[in-house]
DNA sequence: GATTAGCACTCTCCGACCGAGAGTGCTAAT
DNA sequence: ATTAGCACTCTCGGTCGGAGAGTGCTAATC
């Protein structure tokens, strides 16, 4: 400890200050820190250091004569430099494993909903999960199933065994024969392609296929968006919103309603999670870094899980005053667990 | 007006009092009522009548020397006897029609989500929609679609053109042949039956069918619950929660958190809507009649929509202090609109 | 030269107090 | 039967003041 910008003592103070503030939610003064410090250092000395930290913009006082609290930047340096990786305690790991891997195979949505639920209940924050992004999936099979008069169910499977369906309405006079022909044509053209091509090259490619029924192709292409994104609202699971109530930072209505409004809109959160640098590991987004109106007081710890070629995102959303070290460990463990669970 | 229990004046006073309270959220005193009353009646007289109403338990004062507010029972008599049916104003009807019937055919879930959204935005309350209850649907077709190695998608269509799917995991060594055979057997046995029988008689019936692969039948039967209920959580759409913030009765945290907690649990609400006397028309559930812990201060106006033989529920959830007459009209209109939309 | 003790100062929080305002219930007059 | 008049009660908002917490600065100390 002690890196480029901060000397040892400053690191120490910042760290302890944040630790204490995170657990009490009260501005912390020099006196408390002096006591909490194993090494002897008087309140006055600590005050000096705190002044330095404040000038650097890492902490601030809500008002003269209150203790200090961390700023977003303070949390940032804390997360980037001052916490050491943690592992989830055995009992918690066991609980996660049991609740998640439980029972026999369930629907993906079920698992994701359950994951969000567990994350929420384990952390007392808001659990968030996002269904895998099919864009990179490789189409393994397309099936057109007539369900009833004029209703056609499109089933698209991808290599990892996931599938999505859309119910279409078609002209009444389309017969089984042309459905089968179209299905064959679709499979020939699309199997092996990535799902993303449905948006781009596929429509043109299918247009001049003379075996397929052009009307069917048209409705299929129109429905493609749904196959890829599933309305994008539906693919997000959020649980534990009511945990916000227990947190003092959301005692006032303004803050609370801001966050709930954002969550209710869904799309902003979906986009945030989708675009948060897909791939690699855990990402922590702190306070104003979360570019959502209404959620300025929040942080998000997120990671990705994999199912074959496709990836989804899970995360924990809560006030900036959160136990970052612990949550990082939990998200990491859960993401891995989820990958195993879905892969198998 | 003026029915069994209440004389004309009492009815009048109760009605005007509730109207006024609903629009202002302030306890209403005798003075205000006297002014609002077209017919001349002095505050003192009104006070006497109000005392009577209070003894009957229809209104109460929050504290001595405040005006009166309606009790749950007050609202009840108001809804049952004092409001006259209303129709939705033309512009609102137009808006509902446009936003709901818009575009081409969409997925049922989309429509329901959209409906909940519109209800919420039009009423500034919480909009709630529940997917059709498949129990009474008549199975029109069952399809087993191999999606990938060891993954089988079960598609069940019912006569109205709705469909549901479940993704199953099956043993690796099940071949196309036995899948087809099983599918044929399933269709033979189940087409024409009601979906509800999947829970009851179907399992036994299928057990000793020697054409079907017994392993497939077993997983199918296990998945039946999901086909009928779709996890029951997924079939509920709620929108407009953040509208609660604008309502003064939820200014205090206790009330707010209670309601949000209930909504988040989902199942209690699903059950409430499912069991609210399926069939016939609009039902208003007021205050403590809503048997949900945490939602004692809420009322629900709900109705059902039909898609062929199956029925779903839509509703509006808000504080007991709501514009019942208006909401009744809106729910009624929307339910009919939804039926048309889905039926077509 | 860094650390610390001491002290004056500032600011919030909380309870007490008070007056204004609103609305009631009762009684007596209409 | 209705109403005017009045004393009474209770809430709400604002002010005041003391207690407490924490600071920044200065001067003493190691």
CATH class of the largest domain in chain A, anyone?
Alpha Beta
Q: In DSSP terms, counting alpha (H) and pi (I) runs of 4 or more, how many helices of chain A?
A: 12
Q: What is the overall pLDDT average of chain A?
A: 91
CATH evolutionary superfamily of the largest domain in chain A: GAF domain
Largest interface: A-B, 48 and 48 residues
User: Residue share in helices of chain A?
Assistant: 40-55%
Radius of gyration of chain A: 25 Å
* Main sheet specs of chain A: 5 strands, antiparallel
What structural class do you assign from the helix and strand content of chain A?
alpha+beta
Q: Can you describe what's shown?
A:
2 copies of one chain form a homodimer. By secondary structure, chain A is α+β, with helices and mostly antiparallel strands. Chain A has 3 domains: 8-82, Winged helix-like DNA-binding domain superfamily/Winged helix DNA-binding domain (Arc Repressor Mutant, subunit A), CATH 1.10.10; 90-133 and 233-343, GAF domain (Beta-Lactamase, 2-Layer Sandwich); 136-229, Heat-inducible transcription repressor hrca homolog, domain 3 (Enolase-like, domain 1). Helix content of chain A is 45%, strand content 19%. Chain A contains 12 helices and 10 strands. In chain A, the strands form 3 sheets. In chain A, strands 7-3-10-9-8 form a 5-stranded antiparallel beta sheet, with helices on both faces. Chain A has a 3-stranded antiparallel beta sheet with strand order 4-5-6. In chain A, strands 1-2 form a two-stranded antiparallel ribbon. In chain A, α1 crosses α4 (72-82) and α6 (108-123) packs antiparallel against α12 (324-343). Chain A is elongated. The two termini of chain A are 41 Å apart. The mean pLDDT of chain A is 91. The interface between A and B is large, with 48 and 48 residues. The structure holds a DNA duplex (30 and 30 nucleotides).
């Amino acid at each position: 400890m002690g890196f480029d910008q901060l000397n040892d003592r400053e690191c120490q103070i910042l760290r302890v200050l944040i630790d204490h503030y995170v657990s009490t939610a009260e501005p912390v003064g020099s006196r408390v820190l002096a006591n909490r410090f194993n090494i002897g250092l008087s309140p006055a000395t600590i005050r000096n250091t705190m002044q330095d930290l404040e000038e650097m913009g890492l902490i601030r006082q809500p008002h003269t004569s209150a203790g200090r609290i961390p700023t977003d930047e303070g949390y940032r340096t804390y997360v980037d430099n001052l916490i050491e990786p943690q592992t989830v305690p055995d009992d918690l790991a066991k609980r996660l494993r049991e609740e998640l891997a439980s029972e026999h195979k369930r629907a993906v949505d079920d698992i994701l909903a359950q994951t969000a639920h567990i994350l929420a209940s384990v952390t007392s924050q808001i659990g968030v999960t996002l269904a895998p992004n099919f864009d990179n999936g490789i189409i393994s099979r397309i099936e057109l199933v007539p369900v009833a008069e004029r209703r056609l169910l499109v089933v698209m499977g991808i290599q990892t065994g996931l599938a999505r369906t859309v119910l279409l309405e078609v002209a009444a006079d389309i017969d089984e024969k042309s459905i089968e022909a179209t299905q064959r044509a679709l499979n020939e053209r699309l199997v092996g392609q990535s799902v993303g091509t449905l948006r781009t090259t596929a429509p043109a490619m299918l247009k001049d296929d003379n075996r397929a029924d052009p009307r069917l192709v048209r409705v299929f292409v129109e429905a493609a968006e749904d196959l890829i994104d599933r309305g994008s609202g539906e693919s997000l699971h959020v649980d534990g919103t009511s945990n916000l109530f227990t947190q003092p930072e959301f005692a006032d209505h303004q803050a609370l309603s801001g966050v709930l409004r954002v969550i209710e809109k869904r799309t902003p959160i979906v986009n945030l999670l989708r675009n948060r640098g897909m791939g690699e590991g855990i990402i922590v987004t702190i306070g104003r870094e979360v570019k959502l109106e209404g959620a300025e007081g929040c942080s998000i710890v997120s990671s990705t899980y994999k199912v074959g070629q496709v990836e989804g995102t899970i995360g924990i959303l809560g006030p900036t005053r959160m136990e970052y070290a612990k949550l990082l460990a939990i998200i990491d463990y859960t993401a891995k667990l989820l990958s195993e669970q879905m892969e198998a």
